[in-house]
Structures are given as structure tokens and as C-alpha cells.
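Predict the holo structure. Ligand: beta-D-glucopyranose.
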Amino acid sequence: MPGGGVGLIATADTARIEAPVTLKAYLMCAFAAFGGIFFGYDSGYISGVLGMDYFITLYTGKDPNNPAYAKNGSDPSGFALPSWQKSLIVSILSAGTFFGALMAGDLADFIGRRTTIIVGCIVFIIGVILQTASSSYGLLVAGRLIAGFGIGFVSAIIILYMSEIAPKKVRGAIVSGYQFCITIGLLLASCVDYGTQSYTNSGAYRIPMALQMLWAMILAAGLFFLPESPRYFVKRGKIDRAADVLGRLRGQPRDSEFIQTELAEIVANHEYELQVIPQGSYFQSWANCFTGGLSHQKSNLRRTILGTSLQMMQQWTGINFIFYFGTTFFEQLGTISNPFLIGLITTLVNVCSTPISFYTIERFGRRTLLVWGALGMLICEFIVAIAGTVDGSNPATVRAEIAFICIYIFFFASTWGPGAWVVIGEIYPLPIRSRGVALSTASNWLWNCIIAVITPYMVDTDKGNLGAKVFFVWGALCVCCFLYAYILIPETKGLSLEQVDRMMEETTPRNSAKWVPHSTFAAEMGLTDKGTLAPEIVEDVERRGSVV
Ligand code: BGC
């Protein structure tokens, strides 16, 4: 029985540090992936709404039948919202998510991972109600800012929560389920927009907006029945409660040897990290994410840079160029009769390719997927760029370009899409994990926003007018992604989060796939001859956790 200074059963055997898991327990871990729907749906639905006739008339007073607004009509502003308003409506959400993700990292350590996600759902619902009720900019922008906060909470902490509760053998596959839900969210958004775009009443935009509440309600309701993360309770020094939730998560009695041994390892690792990382004030706990210097490969600073830059690189692959600007790009290619249909096809390729990663991320590993995925993407991107530059007006070339764009999406969806989320959930030690994951997620939203803002300047016909040549830019950035993954990404498959911590200390990314765990933290920190973790360790973790 943990707590009260009595040691947990512990082992020096590296193969026995995780309890076996029941099917029900697997399903519980997988449910949290549902949170990805928010992310995808919200990124996807707004571009459709901004182009809806009813919405434009409501917000600008313009009449769609007035010839002045037709293409080449006398009013150059056309039948559209002014650019600054469009960009404000779109980007305010990313601003909200950026700050929401950062705040959520704090909250997750104070009120728990699960509770933070539920709070995120409530904040999101408030934002959605404001958006749905709005018929003026002020309220719409405020609603999107608030909803953005909620998505920031959910998107950062779901990754943290899933990584912490999932069994190590399927952790990659379960977190990839989150990416799968993002892709479904994107698909749902384009279908709903398509369905309501021709409505001549406020249902045109209110239905796609209001529907989002459903995702939040399902997620929050489901989470009420799921347990909190045992690693959160360890961090707060509540070892007894950690044993309870770990038992539920693994489908084993809380006092069984399995649960006691897994918990002992989490506690011993936490104690080890606490000794390495000085604890202190609130500011000190943030500062801890940036300590240790650049030259030390295990340092917190290196890990924070790794997580935030990995998410930046994921955006640099150029994937959102297709999802945000695809329709306009396909229109510019000329010979395409139904750009919307091509947009739908690319979204479907994204959905259908993602599940491949459930298998490959555990079979071949995160590093392998990121290296080969970047190679696949960069080849496709250069082919699209070269074909478009050499022979862009030929319908056969355009068809080939579209085919290669689909293959490019296949590579993204089966590698970098899920891979980036999986890795950020795994590389941080417990004392800085919630903030590290939050910073990495915030970086995803920041770069998402930067790319959305600058891309029109590269491709709009009255600006850079790059056309297919823009794929030279994405291809070159993908070369960076390839080198980055090869040089910096460690292999984390099959290891417990505590073993990842040890692996990052002992080996380099390029040799990491060969690293095998050789001892347990429990054995190193102190095993008694009765086969229990030294009671002082449990007591120390309990004492320090209570003053977090
Ligand atoms: C990215 C998003 C992107 C989506 C596409 C996610 O992993 O972070 O920016 O829109 O994948 O499926």
C-alpha cells in the first residue's frame, strides 16, 4: 500500500515496469483522441463561411447580384469581406489558441489534465455560443477569441493526457488517433459548409458554427467517466490516488503487483528528476523549461527547443497550404472544372491515409516515419513545382500535379501529421512535461497562423503570383524537415515515458533506435531488500508534490 512512508513493490527488471492492459482500458485511452475533432473542424469550417453569400451580405451589405461586384466589375473590392476583416476573423482564433495552450500547461499541473480539458470544453462552448449568436464583427471576433482559448486548452492537454495514460506499446498508435480525429474534423467541416452554403437564411453560417458545440459536449461528457492521469497525481504527491487511477486505466486491482511496480517506476523517475531540476517558485517552474544549456543533449532547454521546433517544422511541410488555400490554388491552375471536388478529394486522402500510421508508428518507429515521410513529401513537392513551371497550362500536367499533391498528402498524413504530436508527448520529463507540451502546441498554432498570413502574399495573382512555383518553397522547407528529423529526432517507440527520459540522456538521436533499457529508476533510486521502493522516496515525492 503506497503512502504513509510504506514502500511500493518495485523491480530492477526493465521488462516488468508496466502492467498488462485490458481491452476496456485500451478503449478508455483511445476515447480522448476525440478531442482532435475540434482542432480539425475549427481550422476547416471558417474559410467556407467567409465565402458564403448570406454571410457576406450580412457583414458588408453587398448584394451578390449587383454587377459591380462581379469578376472585373466596377468595384474592385468584389463580392467579398474586406481582407483585413477576413484575416482578423481567421487569425484571432490562432491567437486565442496560442495563449490558451500556454495557460493550459499551468492549469494542468494545478487542477489536473482531465479537469483542464473539461474546462477547455466549457470555455469553447461559451465562445461558440457568442459566435452563433453574432451578426456583427465585435461579437464574432470575441467569440472566436474565446473559442480559441478553449481549443488551446484542449489541443495541448489532450496530447499530454493521452501520452501519460496510454500503455507504452500502443502510445504512438493512440496519440495518432488524435491526428485521425483532426482529419475527420476537417472533412466534416467541408461537408457541413458545402451543405449549408446556399441557404438564404442565417442557418448558412449558424449551423456550421453551432455544430461545434456537439464535439465539446461529447468530449466533456466522456471525460467525466475517464480517470485522471496517474502521473499528475504523482506530481502532486498523491500516490494513493495515483494507484487508484492507474488500476482503472490498466484494468487491474490497485494493489496488484503489476500496478505497484508500474507506479514505483513513475515515482522513482519523478524523484530522480526532482533531484536534477531545482524546484521553486512559479517563475522558477517556467524557467525550468529553459535550463541546462544547449550543449547538454538531455537538457530541458534542448527538449523544449526540440518540441517547439518539431511543431514548427510540421507546419513548414506546407500541408495547410493545401487545406487553407487549396481551392483557390486549384482554380488558378485553370483547367479544373470543380475545385471544391478536388478539395474534398485531398481531405479524403488525408483521412484515409492517417490510420496507416497506427501500425507503422509502432512497427517502424517515430524517427523512421519522420525521416522517410519528409523524403516522400519533398520529392512530390519538387515534382509538382517542376511540372507546373515547365508545362503548367497542359491539362495532363495539371492532372499529374494533382496526383502528386495527393501522394504528398498521403506521406504527410501517415508520417508527420501524427508523428509530430506523438513525439512532443514523449520527450519531456514529468516536472516540465505539461509546460513543454503546451509550448510545443502553442508553436504549432503560431506557425499555423504565420503561414496562413504570409501565404496569400506568395500566391495571390496581384502579389507574388508564384502559382505552382510555390511548391519550390515547400519542397525546400521539406528538405529542412528531412535533415532535421535525421539529425535531431530520437526513437521513442516501445519505451515507457520514464525510459525515454533515460534514453535521451544516454544516447544520440541517430543511435537511439538501438538503445535498450538496462536498469530501472526504482533500482537506481533505492530498492529495499524486501523488493519495495525505499519509503523515503515515496515520502519525498508526497511532500514535494503537496507544495506544487
Ligand atoms: C496539423 C494541422 C493540419 C492537420 C491536417 C495537423 O497535424 O497540425 O495544422 O491542418 O494536421 O491534417
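Residues 43, 179, 182-183, 186, 314, 319-320, 323, 350, 417, 444, 448 surround beta-D-glucopyranose (CB under 6 Å). The chain has one domain: 20-241+292-498.
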